Amino acid sequence: MELTYLYNSGFMVRDEKILVVFDDYEDPANAVDIAYDQNDFDRLYVLVTHAHFDHFGTRIRAYAPKTTRYIFSSDIKHTKRVKIFPTNKITYIKRYSNWQDDMIKVTSFDSTDVGISFMVEFPSGRKVFHAGDFNWWHWADDTRENLELAEKIFKRQMKRLDGLEVDAAFFPIDGRLGASQEMGAIEFVQRTKVKNFVAMHRVDFPQWEPSPAFVQLSKNVPTWAPVTPGEKLTI
Ligand SMILES: [Zn+2]
Question: What residue ranges define each of the domains in the chain, with the CATH number in brackets?
């Protein structure tokens, strides 16, 4: 399985002849274009976790001819930007639902922001999880009520993810959260069985280096913190 960093929370995952693209609103290295033109795939699925501008953009419309399915969070249905997409190729997904065809299985979970998170299972049995904007959004200068609410909704959602087994998980390590940037990730890796942890949602911040606390509490889960668009990891 090959993971390619696009930008922000954008990734392309290749498993054998299947390409799955997540939250591709910008792709400065043209990684998806290159794969698209090489045509060395049987299926292409384009998934978007929610409508925020830094996750959903119209550039992915260009892939429609070879896209098997656009799988969009249902909040995207209400945007103007989606009107240019071919409606017969879009499946809208709400939280806690499933979609599958003869190749992949998609399971959705809730977010703690807008939209959903995704788990995708490939025919090989390999699985990936993409958090979207699901995170423990602990903004240190926020009110106590808001901090408690952020913790509550994050932990409530984590109950649904307890024991999740995936080959790779894409999860926010947002530098804007400062000292709290790993709080969600630590809880997430402790409660799941993630074989590779991939940091995302970190544009304009230096490369993430797992803190000693993360390393210890995550039991040395391998991490990848891509910063350069087009960077790849084979797992
Ligand atoms: Zn976001």
Answer: 2-234 (3.60.15.10)
Q: What is the pTM of this model?
A: 0.97
Per-residue pLDDT tens digits of the chain, which is 235 residues long: 999 999 999 999 999 999 999 999 999 999 999 999 999 999 999 999 999 999 999 999 999 999 999 999 999 999 999 999 999 999 999 999 999 999 999 999 999 988 999 999 999 999 999 999 999 999 999 999 999 999 999 999 999 999 999 999 999 999 999 999 999 999 999 999 999 999 999 999 999 999 999 999 998 899 999 999 999 999 9
User: What's the Cα-to-Cα distance from 82 to each of 26, 45, 182, 231, rounded to whole Å?
Assistant: 16, 16, 33, 28
**How much distance in Å is there from the Cα of 186 to the middle of ligand 1?**
19
Q: What is the CA(155)–ligand 1 centre distance, in A?
A: 19
For residue 63, the CA-to-ligand 1 centroid distance in Å is 22
Nearest by Cα to 202 from 162, 171, 233, 232: 171
Please state, in angstroms and rounded to a whole number, the distance separating the CA atoms of residues 151 and 109.
Answer: 17
Cα 131 to ligand 1 centroid, rounded to whole Å: 10
Neighbours of ion ligand 1 (CB under 5 A): 52, 54, 133
β 116-121/127-130 pair status: antiparallel
C-alpha 40 – ligand 1 centre gap (Å): 30
Tell me how far the alpha carbon of residue 175 lies from the centroid of ligand 1, in angstroms.
Answer: 12
